[in-house]
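Supplementary notes for students who missed Thursday's class. We covered one full example, reproduced here. Read the sequence, then the structure, then the short commentary at the end.
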Amino acid sequence: MAKLSLRAVQKLTCKKRDAWWTVILVDPVATRMLIVMARFNFITPNRVTWAALFVGLGSAGFFLKGDMQSLIIGAALYHLSFILDCIDGKLARLKGNGTVFGGWLDYVFDRIRVLFCALALMGGQYLRNGDERFLLAALMVVFLDMLRYVDALQIYKMRMSMRTKIEKVTRERQEAERAAAAEGPAEPEAQQIRFMEDLLRENPEAEAELLKEQAGAGHVVDLHAQFRHRFPWYLRVRQALLRSRIRPHLISGIEFQMFVFIVGPLIGQILLTTVISAILLGIFELVIMYKFWLSTRDFTQVMADLAQPPSGAGSIAPHLHRGRHRRGVAGDPLAAPEFQAPPPYEDPGFQPYPEPCLPYGAADQLPLEQQPTQVFQPLPEPAYQQMTQAYQQVRTPGYDQPVQGRPAYGAPGAMPAGHGYPGDREGVG
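Structure (token representation):
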């Protein structure tokens, strides 16, 4: 691997913002160790993670002894373990050989190290002093460490969920607007939205309003608007800290661990340091929860704004007014010339549908305006005679003779009174 300068390694591996303990007390040492370790191919990020775990367990062994010298050695080993824990991620970023399993391994080993060191540190003091408060302190350390990382993970998942929902609803709204306006596909830039937190992360020292104007007010979603509105001084503090790569969350899980396992053993005030750091961690966690609650209110407002129907949405397009959608058309669409009967010279065989037949003489009793315009004329006498002769030739012998008082059927079409037509259920039986 080519030789890299210290400044180049810091630029490639250090985070843009990190905990103040890491920035001040870890990165200066970790980057110099990284330059040496990166020269050896057998040193991989996962092996460095395993080394950090073993050094952390060695620290727990010294903590268990409980004497002052062992506490100092244990604190030094814990700090070395944390430096190695930071180097594995920097090495993965420098060589580009990080894996998903490596990230999971690093997270699990951190929790194991905290658990063993907390039990060993507080248990060693309980064995030496018999003070049961150290047992409660051990439970508090493990609980707060678990709460901090579980809460951080859950808040991160909820933030990603809110962003995904906003992007989905925005995309559906843009498609509905294009469909209502009967336009073609929009530009790819017009479909993308930006989040204010991303813009501030890319430009830490810029003003939020300026970034919103540059990106376009209609394409920027701000999920921290209420928090900045209630605490306008927060941006100034944040910008001042980020100039040194220090994140505003000053007391996080990292600082809590360092105070409990390094500062407390070094000054000989383990219980007092643990209580104070626990209170500070709880205060900052409440601030994070309050900020997240305000963010959910911003999310609800954004979703309500996106749920409003766009202009023209819900209206019927002009080309759909015919057929089933006739209510919005003035007049009868079937009265158009293209729906009228063709002239005789265009379609000589065209005949309109006949109107329903009425019983004989019923049409004369109707009012003049209701009488049918088409009347069936009786057959001429020659045609009637030919039909009668044809019927006489094919009729059944004896069919026209009276049987048991039944009159003979003498002519085609002659039916007894009240018999009805075939299929008439009222006239049968």
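Commentary. The first strand starts at residue 194 and ends at 195. Residues 405-429 have pLDDT under 50 and may be disordered. If anything here is unclear, bring it to office hours.
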